[in-house]
Amino acid sequence: MAGVAGRGGRRKEVKKETGLGLTNKKDENFGEWYSEVVVNGEMIEYYDISGCYILRPWAMTIWEIMQKFFDAEIKKMKIKNCYFPLFVSPTVLQKEKDHIEGFAPEVAWVTKSGESELEVPIAIRPTSETVMYPYYSKWIRGHRDLPLKLNQWCNVVRWEFSHPTPFIRSREFLWQEGHTAFATKEEADTEVLEILELYRRIYEEFLAIPVIKGKKSELEKFAGGYYTTSVEAFIPNTGRGIQGATSHCLGQNFAKMFEINFENEKGERAMVWQNSWAYSSRTIGVMIMVHGDDKGLVLPPRVASVQVIVVPVPYKDADMQGIFDACNATVNTLSEAGICAEADLRDNYSPGWKYSHWEMKGVPLRIEIGPKDFAKNQVRAVRRDSSAKADIPRAELVEKVKQMLEDIQQSLFDAAKQKRDACIQVAKTWEEFVEALSQKKMILAPWCDEEEVEKDVKARTKGEMGAAKTLCSPFEQPELPEGTKCFASGKPAKKWSYWGRSY
């Protein structure tokens, strides 16, 4: 690869002798390292419109694996898939004032058709509340029409920002968005947490990333919503939190605006309670940032499109046909057992080059078969996460490989949790808070839960690195001893909250 594109799609020439290996180290230049890994690992290709990226099959498979899991789970909850148009009329978009103010700078507009100006410009959806809810008011008439539970898998466009980053902050991204309506607040509250638990599972069980479940502050909640819950991840290398996925209770605000009313069992008019919830292709970026290393991507086995790569190791005078046959047989045996395995039999690359190539792409396990392995009826397995090697008799191949993949999945999660936990600092005073922030920590602090105080913290921490803000108040609250003061205002503290810089 001659060049690696930096932020915003600018091409930078990178000198490489072999065309393999990264020129930036994760600990030394994180931003450049990330830009390099996503391209060299064949996750994305830069596109000629800044902030838009081509998702290559290596990335798309990860999205599909998560999609398959989540789609099956929401179907168990009797949520049905649908599809609404990409375009939004301005009158509908501006109906819910608070909501659209929250998105206004990011809305992209279509103003021309061919050479002629459109009489009325058309917006491209930044999210679909205003697209969908006029139709909810049409479809919901009585209590028998409830609950209405829809989800769509689609793309959205959010245009305004200065530093596009593949997966993390792009102008067009993939997501699912669920939009549900209920007769009662209790039903809505229950679903919010059921969905949040599915998001936790995506991160922890599939992507091997520890997350914190909690509630957003009033300042950070979804514009126009009642309350917002989220799963929050943390990137130790940059000292930034990252919102992993959100599940919002919208309350009755949108029902009021869009007149989504129903006749309840007593024959009275009532307004519905609504939720909306989403996770996006940002999840993939979080995975790359957390697990990647100086050799490239590190994929958790549960989301890897290739879990095992089989590489023949030629030797002069060796029975190469026998070794190739053994490689193919190994792939067949593993594939039949439900393991995603492939062989790299290309003869124009050396084994060393292949090792580096598949390490760059993050394949969890490499199997090498050379003359000695062939003679002993065994294979050599090398783990991507730890580089640990093990010789496996062919008779035990499936059982041992399955065990190794499970171990890798768990090890990645354990290592990520250990790193994240080492970055969590408790701060009870402003001085401790500022010190922890300068050390790139995620800070757990007692807080009075007042919006003005949060705004003040943002203002006082504003700098080159960006201001600190609340990430979430965790559902699992540590004990708050009586008389505990807020770290920022000195008023009585009401809860513990996580704070930090964020993406």
From TrEMBL:
Keyword field contains Transmembrane: no
Entry's Gene Ontology molecular function annotations: ATP binding; proline-tRNA ligase activity
Location of the Aminoacyl-transfer RNA synthetases class-II family profile domain: 62-300
Any one Gene Ontology cellular component term annotated for this protein: aminoacyl-tRNA synthetase multienzyme complex
Record carries keyword Ligase: yes
PROSITE patterns to which the protein is assigned, alphabetical: AA_TRNA_LIGASE_II
CDD domains, per database record: ProRS_anticodon_zinc, ProRS_core_arch_euk
Entry-linked InterPro entries: aa-tRNA-synt_IIb, aa-tRNA-synth_II, aa-tRNA-synth_II/BPL/LPL, Anticodon-bd, Anticodon-bd_dom_sf, Pro-tRNA-ligase_IIa, Pro-tRNA-ligase_IIa_arc-type, Pro-tRNA_ligase_II_C
EC numbers for this chain: 6.1.1.15
Keywords (A to Z) from UniProt: Aminoacyl-tRNA synthetase, ATP-binding, Ligase, Nucleotide-binding, Protein biosynthesis
Segments forming a coiled coil: none
BP GO terms, sorted: prolyl-tRNA aminoacylation
Reaction catalysis annotation: tRNA(Pro) + L-proline + ATP = L-prolyl-tRNA(Pro) + AMP + diphosphate
HAMAP family the record matches: Pro_tRNA_synth_type3
Name used for this protein in its record: proline--tRNA ligase
Protein's organism: Punica granatum (Pomegranate)
